[in-house]
Amino acid sequence: xxxxxxxxxxxxxxxxxxxxxxxxxxxxxxxxxxxxxxxxxxxxxxxxxxxxx
Length: 53
Description:
53 residues, alpha+beta, 2 helices, transferase
């Protein structure tokens, strides 16, 4: 995965998959709120697991 941007097109699976896959390089997820469909708090948990506040 290269640095860049991802548009999940209303698909929670794309938002979540690219959020994890892109951790080492940094990718902007447009409209990340779609992850809340299947995993409320996904990005908060991901930040916590990665040691971010």
